[in-house]
């Protein structure tokens, strides 16, 4: 448990209360570390105190530590080491552990991110202790009640005090649920980090493990990820997804989430096929570089759909719906839940349609800090 050193020489920027704020971020899963990076950097430029609590939902080095290192995120102040479990057991263990941490620190704001079990646990622990909760990436909806993420985001939005929305569509969802009075449009913090990293990796060589897997051949390849329970937890569905990826015309770099690897082993599904290269998850800058160099992305990840869009790479999504509906405009992202058109969709060229800037201007983290100051 490391404490941040005080930041000498930093100007004191008071919140509305007239004093610097203490804000405590709760994170635990890979996409939250990406969102945390620009927020931590924005806080570091103020006199506010920013504490980080890592629940330990993701614990493999490649799912957690590399993000802190590569994205220069300060070491968490507290690590709960909760690990895996059923949804109830995992969320419950986080809730128990967070109760005493929040009771001890009593921050002005608890900041939760996205839609994971860590988000819900942070929210519940905070509201029950009458601590104010701000939800970053509020208002996203898939309207698919089978998804654990949908339960987490709906419950979090309705419990939180301040809803920091990434898009106009998210603001409209919140308004439709009677939450407009607590909602602020700040933009998408993933745009902040994605554009910064894109500019840093442009022109660099492909990540060595990817280059090696592809045999050093220049030319087309696809980036694929699969980890949603609806795709991984039914043996027939998972076999169909892996077969479909192996049947694509171009080599596929399958960046394999631990859940995918575990389920394939359990169901006896072989990932080693000609043209299908299963690789461990990539660090964030390597992922951005891999997508930039690819012909297309095939995924069920929310974040990767949007990163493909931001980077101008066509995406095919193996789900019945997407929360990031703006990516569908102009055919940049196409849903193919039944895998019936995957071969053609994965081979399509990049659309020519303008993408616009539905995910903001890359300054969402700064606006997040301002919203907390004003709240
Ligand atoms: C979680 C989030 C999901 C997010 C995803 C990003 C929930 C409900 N879901 O899903 O919204 O898109 O993270 O990756 O919170 N495992 C490891 N090592 C790790 C982490 C996980 O081996 O570092 C394995 C464990 O066997 C675990 C399984 O992966 O049971 C699933 O992990 P879990 O955190 O439960 O959910 P994710 O599928 O990662």
From TrEMBL:
Residues 49-373 form the UDP-N-acetylglucosamine 2-epimerase domain. One of its GO terms (molecular function) is UDP-N-acetylglucosamine 2-epimerase activity. It comes from Actinopolymorpha rutila. This is UDP-N-acetylglucosamine 2-epimerase (Non-hydrolyzing). Keywords: Isomerase. Belongs to the UDP-N-acetylglucosamine 2-epimerase family. The keyword Membrane does not apply. Pfam families: Epimerase_2 (PF02350). The lineage of its organism: Bacteria, Bacillati, Actinomycetota, Actinomycetes, Propionibacteriales. Its EC number is 5.1.3.14. It comes from the Bacteria. InterPro entries: UDP_GlcNAc_Epimerase_2_dom, WecB-like. It is an enzyme of class 5 (isomerase).
